[in-house]
Structures are given as structure tokens and as C-alpha cells.
Amino acid sequence: HSCWAAVAMEIVADEDAAPLSAECRAHGEGKPVLVDKYISGREVEVDAICDGRDVFVPGIMELVERTGVHSGDSISVYPPFSISDKVKGTILTYAKKLGLGIGIVGLYNIQFIVDKSDHVYIIEVTPLVAHGAVFVEGTGYQLADIATNVILGTSLKEQGIFDLYPPEKERCYVSAVFSFAKLHGLDAYLSPEMKSTGEAIGYDKKLSRAMYKALQASGM
Question: Which helix (H) or strand (E) holds 87?
């Protein structure tokens, strides 16, 4: 996984792998090499709001692509389709502790990995309005408005929000990412670096139909 500004990343199988590419060497000359451990599992994401006292998580998103693909290039699904209630509880607990512990007032995004044993790992916490915030507004909550009011001093409770996590919607929402065709000459192979340029949303009572609509809207 990578942050938005990261460049020159490679997936290396072991310590004896071939030397870094020319691109990595060019960008990294005189700078430290950062090594992340790859954990195989499902990537899950939340956009949350903290007012300094309480936390609100309108929805949990599960990504379709494997870990190691930039979340900006992954297809997001709400509500999550394969994680257990126990994992959801862990994610919500971490989201609340992180928001309050860091001292965030406003919107923040957290990305998690859930391995095959249902262990939850934190990839990163970012205090910004991520692309998923617009997607999660399908839950019926206007995140930008709520977060702006929080920043201006109106607490979540004063805005009528008392639950950490509201009941999940019965409909399935799918946010598909794509438009490689607009970037001429691009290798569309998905990697830790973000490559696509847009997204469209499909929703339906069935996940398969919501997925079909999102892919159709994206021109795929």
C-alpha cells in the first residue's frame, strides 16, 4: 500500500531479491529505504468523524482487490461482504481509540488489513477527506457538512448523532475505479502506486447487480 505522494515502490519477495530498479535508485539516492511487511488478507477502510469527545463511523467499506493494490485503484463495497461482526467491532474500537488518541477534530480515514485468522492490522490513519467519504454518503449522512460543523465547534451529539456505528443499509453499494483508457500508454497492472483517474457508483439489493452497474457505468 502507498500514500498519495509516494513514488518508486516495489514489491520484493525476500531479502535476496534483485537490486532495486533504476527508478527506485534515482528517487531514493541519499534517502532511507522504507520497508513494509506485506500481509495477505482483505483490505477494509473507514471514513470517520471525531469531535474530540465522540467518534462517528457512518460505514465500513471492504475493498475487492488484494492487499498491495493502492486503495485508490480498488473497488469498494458497502456494507462489507465478508468480514465478521467480531472484526467489525475491532475496527470500530480501533477507529474510536485512534481518533480520540490522536486528537483529531473533523474527518479522518483509516485503512486496515484483516488476515485469514481475523486479526486486524492498521495500515495508516490520515486526517483528510478521502475519496471514500463521498461514497459513504450513500448511508444518508453528509460527512462534509457534519465534519465542518464539528470543526466549527458543534459536537456530534449537538448534531443529533449519538451512535458510533449506525445500522447498515440493506442495499449494496459498489464504487468502481478505472479509466485507464484515458491515460494513454499506461500499464494498467495494479500495484502500490495509484494509476486510475475516476470512479462511479452502482447500488442494488444484490451485490452482484450493484457490481454490474458500477462496472457498466465506468465503461468496463
Answer: helix 85-102
